[in-house]
UniProtKB/TrEMBL annotation:
<protein>
    <submittedName>
        <fullName>MBL fold metallo-hydrolase</fullName>
    </submittedName>
</protein>
<dbReference type="GO" id="GO:0016787">
    <property type="term" value="F:hydrolase activity"/>
</dbReference>
<dbReference type="InterPro" id="IPR036388">
    <property type="entry name" value="WH-like_DNA-bd_sf"/>
</dbReference>
<feature type="domain" description="Metallo-beta-lactamase">
    <location>
        <begin position="42"/>
        <end position="218"/>
    </location>
</feature>
<feature type="compositionally biased region" description="Basic and acidic residues">
    <location>
        <begin position="116"/>
        <end position="134"/>
    </location>
</feature>
<dbReference type="InterPro" id="IPR050662">
    <property type="entry name" value="Sec-metab_biosynth-thioest"/>
</dbReference>
<dbReference type="InterPro" id="IPR001279">
    <property type="entry name" value="Metallo-B-lactamas"/>
</dbReference>
<dbReference type="Pfam" id="PF00753">
    <property type="entry name" value="Lactamase_B"/>
</dbReference>
<dbReference type="Pfam" id="PF17778">
    <property type="entry name" value="WHD_BLACT"/>
</dbReference>
<keyword id="KW-0378">Hydrolase</keyword>
<dbReference type="InterPro" id="IPR041516">
    <property type="entry name" value="LACTB2_WH"/>
</dbReference>
<feature type="region of interest" description="Disordered">
    <location>
        <begin position="103"/>
        <end position="135"/>
    </location>
</feature>
<dbReference type="InterPro" id="IPR036866">
    <property type="entry name" value="RibonucZ/Hydroxyglut_hydro"/>
</dbReference>
Length: 307
């Protein structure tokens, strides 16, 4: 199969909530029962190592999921808790796991937007953020944390959120990629919380790395991860081309672009699709390809810069 062949999304993920599954030696996963159009079958938490272990992404504010995670590591010591980012389906349960285990929490930092909010922005697209979260240890790109039989390297992957980290295990060629790369669907990039400019740069960063098996925040593991990332880059560039194709017909607004580009979309995802289009438009306006009056916002109208 060549690199230019399309990579299909994989929606086959039979894992049931609360069940611990060893997906590879040294990597276990537990699914939270929080399915939705945004979370697929739910948030996946990971347990790294044996005996003295790390937990990655304790999940949403969910007592049953915390109990399932703690049950999965009964008789073991949780030495570290890692959090990829501060959306409410990933970080709020951290407090429960920390209280039960005493393990320190490692993450990039508290939640923050990718850019300041514009005065003209009325609506907050990201009500699902965890503003109470603060790590014990702030990690920067390239920082390495070692445990008993495992070693995780922080990989800065902003875009879905400004503080998003992936955690690579270079010796095993594994990467815990959070919501930056998902096998079942594209990630949502919703300004001002997210940034398409950052997101594309982060995809390039992952594509240049050696890890080739990705463990995602939702859905199944992703084999041949670098090739999948290259597919995502092509997919995003094709979405940008669709936006430019529509703008070539004349000035228009985001709802019109969504109707033209996202044929047959689940109506519950229409708002998210609009913010994804806005993320692309922010990038295009910054590059001088597209123009708008005032700031690039969800309610704006857009045209080709040379029109």
């Amino acid at each position: 199969m060549s690199d230019n062949d399309d990579v299909p999304f994989n929606r086959n993920f039979p894992l049931k909530p609360g069940i611990v599954e060893e997906v590879r030696p040294g990597v276990r996963r537990v699914l939270c029962n929080n399915p939705s159009p945004f979370t697929f079958t739910g948030t996946v938490s990971y347990i790294v190592g044996r005996g003295n272990v790390a937990i990655i992404d304790p999940g949403p504010d969910d007592e049953a999921h915390a109990a399932a995670l703690l049950d999965a590591v009964r008789g073991e010591t949780v030495s570290h808790i890692f959090v990829t980012h501060t959306h409410r389906d990933h970080s709020p349960n951290t407090a429960r796991i920390k209280q039960a285990t005493g393990a320190p929490v490692y993450a990039e930092g508290p939640h923050r937007a990718s850019r300041p909010r514009f005065e003209s922005e009325k609506h907050n697209p990201e009500s699902g953020v965890d503003r109470d979260f603060a790590p014990d240890v702030n990690l920067a790109h390239g920082d390495v944390v070692e445990g008993d039989g495992w070693r995780l390297e922080a990989v800065a992957t902003p875009g879905h959120t400004a503080n998003h980290l992936a955690f690579a295990w270079p010796e095993r060629k594994f990467n815990f990629v959070g919501d930056h790369v998902m096998g079942w669907s594209t990630s949502i990039v919703a300004p001002p919380d997210g940034s398409m400019i950052d997101y594309m740069d982060s995809l390039d960063r992952l594509a240049a790395r050696e890890e080739d098996l990705y463990f995602s925040g939702h859905g199944p593991e992703i084999p041949d991860g670098q090739r999948f990332v290259r597919f995502l880059i092509r997919h995003r560039k094709a979405r940008e081309a669709s936006i430019l194709h529509r703008l070539a017909k004349g000035e228009t607004d985001i709802p019109t672009m969504v109707r033209a580009i996202y044929i047959g979309i689940d109506p519950r995802l229409t708002t998210a699709a609009g913010y994804s289009v806005l993320a692309h438009l922010e990038d295009l306006v910054a590059r001088g390809v597209v123009a708008t009056e005032g700031d690039p916002v969800i309610t704006g109208t857009y045209r080709m810069a040379n029109a």
